[in-house]
Amino acid sequence: MHFKINKTTLIDALNISTKAISNKTTLPILSGVLIEAQGNQLNIIGNDLNLGIETVVEANIFEEGAVVVDGSLFTTIINKLPNAIVDIHYTDHMVNIVCDDIKFDLVGTPADEYPEIPTIEKQNTYTFNSKLLKNMIKQTLFAVSTDEARPILTGVLFKIKNNNLTLVALDGYRLAYKQAAIEKLIENTAVIPGKTLNELNKILNDDSQLEISFTDKHILFNVDHVKIISRLLEGDFINYEQIIPSNFKSEMIIDTNEFRHAIERALLLSIKSNKSSIKFEIDKRHLTIKSNSETGKMEEELKIKYNGEGLKIGFNPTYILDVLKVIDSEKIKINFNNNMSPAIIKGLGDDQYKYMVLPVRLSE
Fold first, then answer.
1. For 245-357, CATH number?
2. pLDDT of 259-278, one tens digit each?
3. Alpha helices in the chain (DSSP H)
4. Residue extents of the structural domains in the chain
5. Which helix (H) or strand (E) holds 248?
6. What count of other Cβ atoms lies within 10 Å of the Cβ of residue 232?
7. Which tens digits make up the pLDDT trace of 193-220?
8. CATH class for domain 124-241?
């Protein structure tokens, strides 16, 4: 194998595909990246058996072939080279890298030892607006669980039904729900690993060409010159519709940015503290936010519109701030029942996005 390629083009491709390699594995080959030279292009593939990413870039190919190299080391080497043409030649189990007066020799592994990425036929294939999906992922992904003891909650429910696309994520403490109208498509439901959607969102641009294909066990995202192939999570997703309350006793309307800045200030006292709660005291016209820890305390009053009885309720401030970072509306509406029941946060006038968060028990 022998090819030449611009350093910037190569490093951009490596930075995408190496997101799928595994550095914590009993199979050393999975810490490698596969480089295939065919025709006038390179296929650069990372694969940890659950997630595979293939990036295709143009290159001057002098001799076709393939090799597996240590993904992290190879990427670091290429990144440290000057912005010039990189000449790469593979022979006798060695990868020779030449750029200007710099030379590296890196041990390579035969490509036939690398696990193949599953082939997905384009039967259940959908074309999506990439800008829409990127925003939907942003507004839900942060609520996935990181607890591997409940694997199904480490993914996002992806449901196509009744001319709508719905994404749902929850971790046992909060739930993020986003729905959008789409052109009529074949109904489908899957649970996509959070890691997969995180990597997809890094690649998506507002004008990306995006195709999504499903099988019973895998999903393929075809984005411009990148393919992301992922295993789907197995099992039944929680019946989220049954746990979202529909009736409330009170409603608060508040400016989104003012609320966000106040929560950020309240969080300052939690940086060096184990305390992870703040207190809301709500009356007809004001929300008073109180934070109290061993490092100090703060109190801030915000103007609101409120219907209902006065309420004192506590929340994990991070869970409130997370949604305020992704909500689109200038004002938000928060519905409550009591200080032990979940609250629902929505953009004012927006019923397509909702966020449910459980309160915490107050110590005072």
1. 3.10.150.10
2. 999 999 999 887 666 567 89
3. 7-17, 71-80, 130-140, 194-203, 240-243, 256-267, 317-324
4. 2-113, 124-241, 245-357
5. none
6. 20
7. 999 999 999 999 888 889 999 899 999 9
8. alpha beta
Q: What is the dihedral of CA 270, 271, 276, 279, to 10 degrees?
A: 30
pLDDT in tens, 1-35: 999 999 999 999 999 999 999 877 778 899 999 99
Give the HSE-up count for residue 181: Cα atoms under 13 Å, Cβ half-sphere: 1
Q: DSSP for 109-131, please give it.
A: EEGGGSPPPPP--SSEEEEEEHH
In 256-307, DSSP assigns E strands to: 278-282, 286-293, 296-303, 305-307
Question: How much of the chain, in percent, has pLDDT values that exceed 70?
Answer: 98
Global pTM?
Answer: 0.92
Question: Does residue 64 contact residue 38 with C-beta atoms inside 8 Å?
Answer: yes
User: Which DSSP string do the residues of 61-76 spell out, in sequence order?
Assistant: EEE-EEEEEEHHHHHH
Nearest alpha carbon to residue 200 among 169, 235, 224, 233:
224
Q: Tokens 């999506």 correspond to what residue?
A: 128
Class of domain 2-113: alpha beta
